[in-house]
Task: structure prediction
Amino acid sequence: MNEYEIVLSHGRILDGCGNPWFRGDLAIHAGQIVEIAPPGTLHGKQTINVDDRYVSPGFIDIHTHSDLSLFINRRAESAVRQGATTHVIGNCGMAPAPITDEHLADMQAYWDPISGQPEITWDWRTYSQYLDALQGDGLAINVAPLAGHAALRIAVMGFEDRSPTEPELNKMKALLDETMQAGTFGLSTGLVYPPGCFAATEEIIELCKVVAKHHGIYTSHIRGERETILEAVAEAIRIGETAGLPVQVSHNAPKYGAPCDASANLRLVDEARQRGLDVTVDNDVHTDLAPTLSGGLPQELQNRPPAEIISTLQDPATRHQVREEIVADRKPAFGPSGLLKHGQWGRITILHAPRTPQAVGKTIASLASESGRDPFDVYFDLIIANGHDAVAIFDYIDETNIRLLLQHPAVMICSDGEAMAPYGFLNDPPPYSPCSYGEFPGVLERYVRDQPVLTLQEAIRKMTSFPAQRLGLADRGILKPGAKADIVVFDLERIRDRATNLYPHTYPFENYPHQYPEGIDYVFVNGVLVVDGEQHTGSLPGQVLRMGR
Ligand SMILES: [Zn+2]
Result:
């Protein structure tokens, strides 16, 4: 009889493909799943009786922003504790490579404030060198990288608000080709953020043709997720259709101000699929976001140095223009700005404001009524006082849309968070990012166990084999002999997301700062135990994955 390194015995095995669980033993050897057999039949040097708990592929988080935080916390605490074994990075156009010497400072400004941390050396220039640096001394989780459109633009033309010249576009294409050769899985855009929002559709199509040559995908934080959501989904589909590559629409819940619910954007996706276009979607299950207050300013203004932003807001004439620009929203700004545009000040709660601490915990609506001022003036004055340090929670998504998206077969589950830790720089000040800690357990707890929104096997499919298929990872996201042993063992009865903050908020916020979830009992990455009950083992078996290798 074979003796394997590790056997998980007496589990309820969920293969990740959407099939209902079955009882069995699963053997791990040399980083792979080597055998799955009836309960009690396999033997290992180490046998863990999982006692009828669920055994599932590790969760593949297809939309994260862990590009730099993993340098600071290689243990990937918040990710691996919630069962994520692979993070896709380079999303929303944001990637920390490639870099040109000419625009290094622009790239560092783009990643402010994390860019100043000593673990981030900025000594890479190509994407391949960045991935080597990221692999470095090890990571707790795997990483699958995307090229970022904004990074390419910054490397060639900084934050210029115009279309590239032909030589500039050719330079971007050459850098993208080199980045795809380094093993990125596709190209992402962020078309509401500077500098991505300065790009015309044609520019992206030209770049996507390079990606198509390498069989990569196109993923997009589309050009507006509110008033323009349907046009923006249509643009993403057109880019994929014209350039000839699959499309992934990122975190596609309609935000406050959208003219429709999620069934309208999903209808566009269904129609495209019926026409033979390979279009899929991801979404997370949180109804709020905590960006900086300055992130709600018009993109052109965000581009300027902090002192200039403040002087613009101090001058009554330009302040008035900024206000008009936010309301007009001509170049669609990111989702949370819809609350500013539509005067939903009661949905914006101040979380950090180091130089106006009396504002913390209050909504802009209540600050305005207390002081008898216009809410826009309260908003601008908080930015003048606190610069980029003012952060607020924006409640901007209707939960109905989250359910609609969860139930659609072409929608997978992502966090849109990043690998964090409740200690060190990544917790100073504590970020508001419940998705980074509790996305997958939260789905299992709220939308599988407590409410009949999804079956267990369908939820697991959306967290495992579906994102793996989207990326072309044939040996992950599935439990079968020969697959890599990225595995989560969880107890559905005990599972609890301890980073929740369901609307309406009361201050101080429930479960903040965040804690690790309960019920995720074992997590293996490439066959190595990383989470053992309450403990992180300190092992760093994660791999930087490169497409085609
Ligand atoms: Zn995004």
Observations:
- The pocket of zinc ion is lined by residues 92, 190, 221, 250-251 (CB under 6 Å).
- The CA atoms of residues 133 and 480 lie 32 Å apart.
- The mean pLDDT is 96.
- DSSP finds 19 helices and 21 strands in the chain.
